[in-house]
From TrEMBL:
Gene3D superfamilies: Periplasmic binding protein-like II. This is Sugar-binding protein. Keywords: Signal. Residues 1-25 form the signal peptide.
Length: 434
């Protein structure tokens, strides 16, 4: 989440992503945006992100530009993080077309620290080592290279909860009280059972959840070891926790509880406003995304309850400065400000992205959200953040997750036998890892 970890975050897909890549290359490598070409020391700091980090929406760019009249911030976005990462790898390899600030999803940060440290600025040279005490230990450590390099500053984390549509629950005769629901779906089996009750009386064209891919991702976020163990060895094929998440996702498909939507697709985006699903596993960064897609008509129809099965984390991100950036010092000053406790607290209040700054976490503990029926989001996500395991991060976490969710989509949308889909996932991971 995150994440968002992410709300976190708008939309460019498929062919539009390719176009965006060329546009990014044009604006990132062009000399017209560098300080040397701006009269009076004017600087345009370029920021390239995925999903919905929420800076523009929360007014933080405008606030920063007011505080720094010589700085203009230009942001570009790719909605799908997988598309974003692929484009970023191409540009890192070529050394051109990079923005001054690049977002890095937590599932990719091990790749940066272990394999690409030479392509990003060590932020210690700008004084970042003095910021360590502002961040949760695990958040800071994950972006630290083998030689102690500070390769990114943490934005949000992705503590998990369950978002649900109270109006659809009422129509299906289900309770809407968040405490009662948390008790009824304290386990994932309980969640599926409630889904079957919903399905029996659901409004037309409305499913229990958006996709089994999101179900798998939220469940695996509850585990300390997922794809790698603490020694760095791949364990995903034999990890019982992962197999349990897979099997629960398959059960949801077999019970026909899913709307069968690919996350981040145009159809998925439209489904938020259309009421195509009643629940969605939501890391904190998803709140801003829901608001953006469901719009004003969704205000007061959504609520948030504790997640089945215990606390977990899905997503969260970092801001990094590539070595090929045009305005490195200005980029660092911007990300230092954006990730400071005060700004992280503002982002959470306005967008839902849960802070990784320890000072901000304490500040937002009493936050409620009127869009989500006044839900005590500071308490819900704060409790989840405290209880979530410190996850073992591996170089290919995100790639492995993508192959597994792709395979689940084959079960969900094409009716492929789960055993065959699992074999396809294994082949996909093998191809991804080379």
């Amino acid at each position: 989440m995150p994440l968002t970890r992410a709300a976190t975050q708008a939309a460019l897909r498929l062919g539009a992503v390719a176009l965006a890549g060329s546009l990014l290359a044009a604006c990132g490598s062009g000399a017209s945006d560098t300080a040397a070409d701006k009269p009076g020391g004017k600087v345009t700091v370029t920021v390239d992100l995925f999903g919905s980090f929420g800076y523009k929406e929360a007014g933080l760019y405008a606030e920063y530009e007011k505080l720094h009249p010589n700085v203009t911030i230009k942001q570009t976005d790719t909605e799908d993080e997988a598309d974003y990462w692929k484009s970023l790898q191409t540009r890192l390899a070529g050394g051109g077309g990079l923005a001054d600030v690049q977002g890095i999803e937590v599932g990719r940060i091990a790749s940066v620290t272990q394999q690409q440290a030479d392509r990003f600025e060590d932020l210690r040279k700008y004084g970042a080592d003095g910021l360590k005490d502002q961040f949760a230990d695990a958040k800071w450590a994950a972006a630290t290279g083998k030689g102690g390099e500070v390769l990114g500053l943490g934005t949000d984390v992705g503590p998990e909860a369950m978002c649900y549509r109270t109006d659809l629950f009422k129509q299906a005769g289900l309770p809407t009280d968040r405490a009662e629901l948390a008790e009824k779906w304290s386990t994932w089996d309980g969640y599926l059972e409630l889904g079957k009750q919903y399905k029996a009386k659901a409004p037309a064209k409305s499913a229990w959840l958006d996709s089994v891919g999101s179900l798998f991702s939220i469940m695996i976020g509850q585990e300390k070891e997922r794809y790698y163990d603490a020694s760095g060895a791949l364990i995903w094929e034999t990890n019982p926790a992962l197999k349990s998440a897979w099997e629960t996702s398959v059960k949801a498909t077999q019970a026909d509880l899913s709307a069968k939507l690919d996350q981040w697709s145009p159809q998925w985006n439209q489904a938020f406003a259309a009421g195509s699903f009643a629940t969605i596993p939501c890391p904190a960064w998803m709140l801003g995304y829901i608001k953006g897609q469901a719009g004003e008509t969704g205000k007061g129809k959504w609520d948030i309850a504790k997640l089945p099965g215990g606390a977990g984390n899905w997503g969260g991100s970092y801001l990094a400065v590539p070595r090929a950036a045009k305005n490195k010092k200005e980029a660092y000053e911007l990300i230092k400000w954006l990730t400071a406790p005060e700004q992280q607290a503002k982002i959470f209040a306005k967008q839902g992205n849960f802070p990784s700054s320890t000072g901000a976490i304490a500040e937002v503990s009493g936050t409620t959200d009127p869009y989500f029926s006044g839900a005590p989001i500071g308490q819900i996500f704060g409790d989840a953040a405290k209880a979530a395991p410190v996850q073992v991060l591996g170089v290919h976490d995100q790639n492995i997750n993508q192959q597994i969710t792709n395979a689940l989509s084959e079960v969900e949308r094409k009716g492929l036998a789960p055993e065959k889909a699992w074999e396809n996932a294994k082949k996909g991971v093998a191809n991804t890892l080379g």
